Amino acid sequence: MSEAEARPTNFIRQIIDEDLASGKHTTVHTRFPPEPNGYLHIGHAKSICLNFGIAQDYKGQCNLRFDDTNPVKEDIEYVESIKNDVEWLGFHWSGNVRYSSDYFDQLHAYAIELINKGLAYVDELTPEQIREYRGTLTQPGKNSPYRDRSVEENLALFEKNACRWF
Known about the structure:
By secondary structure, the chain is mainly alpha-helical. It contains seven helices and three strands, in the order ααβαβαβααα. Helix 5 (104-116) packs antiparallel against helix 7.
């Protein structure tokens, strides 16, 4: 039995196989993006095995990219612990460890582009209001009252809030 025949399959692998066979993609590149605000749990281990395992099986790459966007709750102790846990599970990331904060300028530019195209807006609903507006399995959600602000108003609000990140 060949390696491909022996490999277990599931809907994720089926999608990857179809994309590779059709030429939509030529390589597999995954990532594991934990927040460095605590120790890993069993769900993280499952995600590590899925993302690193798929990259390994398809001779691709898997990035370790820390979602370090909340500096109040993050600590280097968790970064080191997560790196050790990934290696303890038998995996190693491709290239250097990455950090979302290294890409804030690019993310900021993307947000501006989306707002200018009318594809994003600044929403000022509280978490409780978001839950109310979200809807349920049986009741449809409703649009935020902030959704229809002008591009100019959204840009001004975004820049006012974005200055906290830089």
